[in-house]
Amino acid sequence: MAAEIRPTGREVFFPAKELIVSKTDLKGRITYANRTFCHIAGYSEEELLGQPHSIIRHPDMPRAVFKLVWDTIASGREIFGYVKNMARSGDHYWVFAHVTPSFDAQGNIVAYHSNRRTPDPSVVKNAIAPLYAEVLRIEQSHRNGKDGLAAGYKALVDFVASKKVSYDELMFALQSAA
Ligand SMILES: Cc1cc2nc3c(=O)[nH]c(=O)nc-3n(C[C@H](O)[C@H](O)[C@H](O)COP(=O)(O)O)c2cc1C
């Protein structure tokens, strides 16, 4: 479905007091979406259930960011980060996401969960959008997809390392400094 949608370049927003919530199975297929998610993305919950979460993937998002998310949650840790998502209309909305694994009583990962709030627009504009554009440019400068992902991932990790803090600390520092 997402492949047929063209980005409009128009940004849409959701209220700061609301959270966009979804849950997925281990493969990233949506098992729950709250009202705010449905409203901003332009789908009913019924349409979202069972769909891959990439249904709202925006083409401006570097693959390296999703690799970092998946590597982190699949190893049982939580992650914070900024994501540009695409609604059914092609409009986009930025989120500050907290993605977590859910465990059963034996400690096995059984599902994933994401809560997103509205990010500070100046952080997105001044720090995140330029960083993601650069990582995407690096990814796309390689003809081979695997090499592109590796180079983009290295650029992302190097950027975090240059700030001398962990990835989550950096994401939080950006969000709360603004
Ligand atoms: C709990 C959870 C929430 C996710 N939320 C989003 C999201 O809001 N937007 C998005 O593009 N991908 C999200 N993803 C990542 C997608 O599963 C997928 O990796 C990403 O869209 C890249 O898709 P692609 O590899 O098909 O290009 C989420 C994954 C999980 C497990």
Description:
This protein has one domain: PAS domain (Beta-Lactamase), CATH 3.30.450.20. It is 40% helix and 21% strand. α4 (121-140) runs antiparallel to α5. The chain has 178 residues and is an alpha+beta fold. The model has no long low-confidence stretch (mean pLDDT 94). The chain has helices spanning 35-41, 45-48, 63-74, 121-140, 145-162, 167-177; strands spanning 20-24, 30-33, 79-86, 92-103, 109-117. β3 and β4 form a beta hairpin. A five-stranded antiparallel beta sheet has the order 2-1-5-4-3. Bound molecules: flavin mononucleotide. The site of flavin mononucleotide (FMN) has 15 residues, from β1, β3 and β5.
Estimated structural class: alpha+beta
Low-confidence stretches are none
Helix amount: 40-55%
Taken together, the total number of domains comes to 1
Beta strands, count: 5
Ligands bound, unique: flavin mononucleotide
In the CATH hierarchy, what is the architecture at level 2?
2-Layer Sandwich
Percent of residues in beta strands: 15-25%
**What is the CATH C-level name?**
Alpha Beta
Order of helices and strands: EEHHHEEEHHH
Question: What's the shape?
Answer: globular
Distance between the termini: 36 Å
**Number of helical runs?**
6
Strand order of the biggest β-sheet: 2-1-5-4-3
CATH topology: Beta-Lactamase
